[in-house]
Amino acid sequence: MLLRSVILFSSLVMLGGIAVAQEPILSREEERIQASVPYYTDYKRGWYWYEKEKAQTKKDKPAADVPPKPRLPALKDYTAETLWNMYPDDFQALLMDFQKKAVMSPTESNVAEYYHVQDIARRKSLAFANVTATVMQKYPELSVAKDYPTATPGRSALTRLQQKEMEKKIEGAAPDYGLVYFYSPTCQYCVEQEKIVGYFEERYGWEVKRIDVTQNAGLASLFNVTTTPTVVLVYRRSQDPITVSAGVVSLEDMEERIYRGIRLLSGEISPEEYSLYDFQRGSAFDVHVPLKEKEVQGGK
User: Fold this and answer.
1) Lowest-confidence segment of 64-68, 194-198, 236-240, 260-264 by average pLDDT
2) What pLDDT does 148 receive?
3) How would you write 31-59 as a 3-class SS string?
C-alpha cells in the first residue's frame, strides 16, 4: 500500500511539470569530474536540481604598483664625446635631470656636475653659431645682410628706398583712395590726430571725409568704429575698407599703414607679403621665393 502511494505521488508530480529525483551516490572520482564541469552547462546539476551556486571567493587584489624611483644621472657614466654627440632631445632631457639632481641635493659635486654638462651645451651652441657665420659668408644668398644691412650707411640707404617707394605709391593712389576720419568734439586725442591728418591731406592731396561720431553714430557703427580717433582707408573699387589706426598714430606710421593698405586692397600683395616692399621682390624677404625656385626647377 505504501509503495502504491509513493508511485501515485510521483506520477502526480511528473504531471505537474516538476521533476524530483534523488541525487545518486557518486564515487570520489565522479565527484571530482562533476566539480570540474561549469555550473550552468552541467545538465545533470544546477537549476534543474535546485542547487544553489556556491559563492565565489574574492581574490585578494594585487598590491598597487609602486613606481620605481628615478635613477639620478652621474657624470662618470658619460664621456665628453658621448655628451657632445648626443641627440639634442636626449641631451636636453639629461641636462634637466642633472639640474633636478643639483636642486634636490645641492651639494658641491652635484652642482659642479650640472654646470659641467651646461658647459658642453654652451660650447655646442657656440660651435653652431660659428658654423652659421661660415655658411653665411660662403653662401651669401642665404643671408639677409645684403637686403637688411646693419651698418649705418646701409641703414640710411634702406630708409631712403622705403620712403621713396611709399611716397610714390601714396601720391599715385590719390584718385582712387580716400580716408574717413572719425572723431569726437570732446576727444583730446582727436585734437592731435587732426593735425597729423591735416598734414597728410595737404602733402598728398588726398580726399579726407571727417565724421563726428556724436552726430553720425550709425555710420560709425557701419565702419565698426568703437573709439576715437579712428582713420579708415577706402578704395573706390572695393567694398572692404581697412582701418589705418584706432587711436593717435604718428605721420610715419600712418604713411606706412596707408601704403600697405593700398597694396592689399589693390591685390598687389597678400597678407603673407604685408611687410614686403616692391624693391625687395626676389630677396630674402620675399616669402614666395622658394616656391618660385621650385617652379623654375620643375620647368627645367
Assistant:
1) 64-68
2) 87
3) HHHHHCCCCCCCCCCHHHHCCCCCCCCCC
Residues 6+ apart with CB under 8 A from 232: 179, 180, 181, 182, 223, 225, 241, 242, 243, 244
In degrees, rounded to 5, the angle at the alpha carbon of residue 286 between the alpha carbons of residues 283 and 288 is 125
Rounded Cα–Cα distance for residues 201 and 185 (Å): 20
When pLDDT is cut at 50, 70 and 90, the band that residue 15 belongs to is very low
Which set of grid coordinates corresponds to residue 81?
A: 664625446
pLDDT at 282: 87
Single-letter amino acid code for the residue at 115: Y
CA distances from 166 to 58, 152, 212, 252, 272 (A): 84, 21, 29, 10, 19
Question: Residue 219: CB partners within 8 Å, gap ≥ 6?
Answer: 211
Helix (H, G, I), strand (E, B) or coil at 179: strand
Q: What is the DSSP string of 221-256?
A: HHTT--SSSEEEEEETT-S--EEEEES---HHHHHH
Question: Within 13 A of 275's CA, how many CA atoms are on the CB side?
Answer: 6
Q: Are strands 230-235 and 207-212 parallel, antiparallel or unpaired?
A: unpaired
Query: Which set of grid coordinates corresponds to residue 128?
Result: 653652431
Distance of alpha carbon 276 from alpha carbon 270, whole angstroms = 10
Domains along the chain with CATH numbers: 2-49 (no CATH), 75-135 (no CATH), 152-280 (3.40.30.10)
Structure confidence by residue, pLDDT tens digits, 245-293: 999 999 999 999 999 999 999 999 999 999 999 999 988 889 888 765 5
Sheet containing 177-183: which strands, arranged edge to edge? 207-212, 177-183, 230-235, 242-246
Contact 170, 258 (CB under 8 A): yes
Torsions phi, psi of 66, nearest 5?
A: -90, 120
